[in-house]
Design a protein that fits this description.
The protein is α/β, with parallel strands linked by helices and 349 residues long. The protein has 11 helices and 13 strands. Strand 2, helix 2 and strand 3 form a beta-alpha-beta unit.
Length: 349
Amino acid sequence: MALEISWFSALCDDDYEQLGVANPALLATWEHCSEIVATAEAQGFDSILLPSGYALGLDTIAMAAALARATSRIRLLVAVRTGENWPPQLARQLATLQHLADGRIDINIISSDLAGETLASSPRYGRTLEVMNSLDELMNGRATELHSDHYEFATPAPRIATGPRPAFYFGGLSEDARDVAARMADVYLMWPDTYENVREIIADMTRRAASYGRTLRFGYRVHVVVRETEAAARAAAEYLVAELDDEIGRAIRERSLDSTSVGVARQGALREGADDDGYAEANLWTGIGRARSGCGAAIVGSADQVVAKLESYQALGIEAFILSGYPHIDECRRFGELVLPRLTHGPLY
């Protein structure tokens, strides 16, 4: 089974030489972020995640449009925040991206609030499900209408949307999130966790999807620190947090819009259960989560160890990995040279 191996472009000002130490040269700009994407394409990565945050960095849709014409092979995994977008408008934007990128678009669905609002989990995920259903209809070239507490519209499909729609990548650990994923996701994304917990989540989501007559593919979002030797990798990991002030790290975590989610709480628990060096299990280091909300752990080790770790997840059923590392261009090159040639990989869609 081939893996889909993706990298990450730091559109949300999330790039450092040392976590918590600002470096103006690594802030999100067209020059910096497009260089990350160009590096990932040159190294042979299958896809690039373009993240989204409405308080930070660059707009994802606008950047994706530019990158669609600046790249030729790599797929663009475009993060969209469902709470911020009117579904017909979002469908038109995404159909345009598909057109500009010659079909190389996938969608990372984020169940977000609108800036200034805080919906409870059930109505927020209910709205997310409505958006996903609407995108499914409209981007497959079908007119649709929706009359709900959240939306009121009847609209034809965008003229250039003829289907099949882009794949939906979606994650979340709450009961509401798992139900939406089982109903509509194509790839269920997980953040770092122990081997046994990953196994349990895959089994649970497989059962839930089957109850709706569906199957899911599974993805894993994690950072990576790879070097020629384990000792060098562990030293590089320690260097990443050597100048990190705990209060600055806390502020970085808390400014995230998902800082109170079930998934973020699990990342905190993973970090709290780690050993004195920050390892939750062999080669899974949680120190990186001291200055990040969301994805809060890294695979750390030699090339042999990183390959073995990825293959152990693959054996559980993981087919897609979305990787990142600091600084993003440097770690992209290292992974591309040390690990990527040893993996059988290609895009899922």
